[in-house]
Amino acid sequence: MSEIILMSDPKVAAVPVQDCGERLSDVRLSDVRLSDVRSGGGLPVDGRKQDGTGAFAQLRAGVLDRLLDAQAALPDGLRLLFVEGYRPPALQSRYFDEYAAELRAANPDWPDDRIRSSASRYVSPPEIAPHSAGAAVDLTLVDADGRELDLGTRVNANPEESAGACYTHADNIGAQARANRRLLGSVLTGAGLVNYPTEWWHWSYGDRYWALATGAPSALYGPAHR
């Protein structure tokens, strides 16, 4: 497995942001807005991360357009299943602090910098979080009947519970899961998104991590507010 740059790496935070001002779009309206120009229609939206305000279903419009392109490139009978997009900064902070506290309780001898870097394998530090920019999406693949394909772990499995199988290129998953991850990666990469290698389900476009991975001079999206 090649070296992984974690979200906590100072190189990510050093990427400048020149926000293009693009608004958040509701993924649940994609069937209505774009079904006539995308052969696959809109994205099916899962409810496991649903919140009272509908924030989870928001994405920057440029990210949504690329997801629809990726879905159109899938073989017949397969679709992307959208799980979570925008995450308000306060919620991102809560997720990060809770996971860091779990790691600290399990590893009381770890220094703060190790807690931070280890936590960032699974939850991005709030100040650079792609989800809080409306630039990241958690997703998986489903068949024509809406059944999730085998991707090796559940969406949002952490490194501890999955014994590292949540890493995109983990070798402790079956051949079918590996093939499905390759397919998912092929269509999303082809549409311009980048993966966070510790989470096979996490893809983004326009954020700082994307800019670092692609060599872009700056991020297109900073923290978003609804």
Set out the fold topology.
Layout: H1 10-13, E1 24-26, H2 30-34, E2 58-60, H3 61-72, E3 79-84, H4 89-106, H5 112-119, E4 136-142, H6 159-162, H7 175-190, E5 194-195, E6 202-204, H8 208-214
Antiparallel strand pairs: 1-2, 3-4, 4-6, 5-6
Please give a structural write-up:
With about 230 residues, this protein is of the alpha+beta class. It contains 8 helices and 6 strands; from the N terminus they run αβαβαβααβααββα. The strands form 2 sheets. A 4-stranded antiparallel beta sheet has the order 3-4-6-5, with helices on both faces. Strands 1-2 form a two-stranded antiparallel ribbon. Residues about 30-40 have low confidence and may be disordered.
The chain-level structural class is: alpha+beta
Number of helices: 8
Low-confidence stretches: 32-39
Binned, the helix content reads 25-40%
Mean pLDDT: 91
**How many beta-strand elements?**
6
Biggest sheet layout? 4 strands, antiparallel
Series of H and E elements: HEHEHEHHEHHEEH
* Tertiary shape: globular
Note the gap between the termini: 38 Å
Give the strand content.
Answer: 5-15%
Tell me the Rg in angstroms. 17 Å
Q: Could you give the order of strands across the largest sheet?
A: 3-4-6-5
Summarize the structure.
Helix content is 33%, strand content 11%. The chain has 226 residues and is of the alpha+beta class.
